[in-house]
Amino acid sequence: MKILKTVSAAVLAMFFAASAQGQTLKDAIKFSENEQYDKADVTFKKLLASEPANGDVYYYYGKNFISTEDLDSAKIIFKLGTDKAPTNPLNHIGLGSVALYQGNKTEGMALIDKGVQWNDNKNIAISIEAAYGLINAPIKDTAQAMKILSKARELDLGKDKKPKNANLYIALGDVFLEANKGGDAMNNYEKALLLDKANVHAYLRQGQLWLRARNFESALKSYNDAIKTDSTFAPAYREKGEFYFLFNKYGLAKEQYKKYLSLAKNNFKARIRYAKFLFLAKQYNDAITEIDLISQTDSNIAVLKRLKAYSQYEVRKYEDGLKTINRFFALQPKEKLISKDYEYYGKLLLKNNQDSLALKVLLDVYNADTTLKELSGDIAGAYLKTKNYSEAIRYFTIKVSQPKDVITADWINLGLAYYQTAQFGKADSAYAKAAVLQPDAAIVYLKRAQANSKMDPDSKKGLAKPFYETYISKIKPAEVDKNKKTLAEAYSYLGSYYLTVTKDYVAAKAAYTKILTFDPDNTKAKDAMELKELKDVVVPADMNVPNTVPSDSTITPAPGN
Questions:
Q1: Which of 121, 157, 233, 387 is the most buried (most CB within 10 A)?
Q2: What is the DSSP letter of 461?
């Protein structure tokens, strides 16, 4: 687990320097449960200054550190609690929880059991904390937690056999949920609300369970009930944001997250979570902005460097992205790197023209997990740049075999690789697939024309003609200047075809005349105008070249494709 900060002896001394300002332990716990961890921290310090022997304060202060994933500080506080209030069971439970988080099952279970024995089922709140200690860490014991809470329930029912403690039934629901018994969990959450209709934690748990059961309407209602009950309860807004995110309602999700952050003020963990949400919602520029704001407080959080590098790639800030991911690699231990890190690293290298290294990185990732079919496109692109066309064909073929992930560029690039290996029929077929995906993209008709021209070098069959004509028709007037070279190529083909194949000299001269309207220095067109066949030809003012632009349905692959 990542350590966000530690408590030094000097800092511990400061705990006792502050004076109490009238806030209670109940207030501090509420701040912590509302994920206002910094505010809770200040309040706990003040309480310790006024009640240095109160074991409960140490325990809940330690829990606040666990919530921010700061196990070292939690352990120090729990240990102080056992020193200052040695007979209080809670801090032993706290130390046991830390041990379980750190992977020490034997020590953790023993310490929690010690706290349970000292409590001797006298205090339901302590039993609840022991149960959570057994289910919150990665190492769990739901059976023992249920045993502890079952005894607490007997105490709660008392002689009148009536339940009284709503929090006990929430804890029972949580243990059942950890044991994958959703029905029993829901029954206990409902019992908690019968006892306390204002218990926002019960509404929150219900919402989470409904969402898990894919009862989306009930989940949203539960979150809204929590917010109606306590409009300052930050976790409900976070869960509601996550709910909207699942349905790709990013605007609503973002709105809920902003409310969450406004309530969970200075919650470092919450802001990191928000940055992750923005990335997952594909709000890459917003993610970068949020990460930069967080980094003003701490610029060495590895996960933020990861998200920033990923986001910079997605918004085409390739040079910055490469710098960021290199800083990320310097911060993140090698054993904690994931395949996605290398994937983005390889992509960023590729965009920064470090093709050989990019290819090595991407191949390592792909060979380790060949289910990453989408990565085959990047590998193919690297091979294309390094002019290894046979390997480019191999990997582009893998990429286009996944229809849902295929984009127009994949088919175009596969066509280019075929074209470079003189497989012009296959190139044309690939370009035809690109045209299906993006029928208004002029470039695919240009590429089809070039491939068909290679299959019909003397132009006698006119294979390239319909594609050059369609290409011309797709170029808007405002785009002529930036496409002068390829437009000249298209009109030159048409001029040559009319001149040498059909002997339509008027159409031929019209084609060459058209070139000179946007490229007056074009030598080929000027020379053609001097040919004896064209020199004295008069072109009607209203004549348009190409004469006839075929519909897409008439454009078919060349024979043999």
A1: 233
A2: S
Dist. CA 409–CA 415, nearest whole Å? 10
In the chain, domain spans = 407-554
- Kindly compute the dihedral angle of the four CA atoms of residues 316, 322, 327, 333, in this order, to the nearest 10 degrees: 100
Q: How confident is the model over 77-133, as pLDDT tens digits? A: 999 999 999 999 999 999 999 999 999 999 999 999 999 999 888 899 999 999 999
Query: Of 447, 430, 437, whose CA–CA distance to 393 is shortest?
Result: 430
Cα-only R_g, the chain? 35
How distant, in Å, are the alpha carbons of 60, 288, 417 from that of 69? 14, 24, 51
Q: Which of 560, 561, 549, 548 is nearest to 445 (CA)?
A: 549
- How far apart, in whole angstroms, are the C-alpha atoms of residue 286 and residue 260? 17
Tell me how far apart the alpha carbons of residues 300 and 37 are, in angstroms, rounded to a whole number: 20
Q: Mean pLDDT throughout 277-286?
A: 90
Q: Superfamily assignment of 407-554 in CATH? A: Tetratricopeptide repeat domain (1.25.40.10)
Q: Residue 254 contacts by C-beta under 8 Å, 6 or more apart in sequence?
A: 241, 278, 281, 283, 286
Length of the chain, in residues: 561
Q: Cα 152 from chain centroid?
A: 43
Query: Is-contact 179 146, C-beta < 8 A?
Result: yes
- Inter-CA distances, 329 with 303, 333, 369, 398, Å: 10, 8, 21, 30
What element of type H or E holds 380? helix 375-385
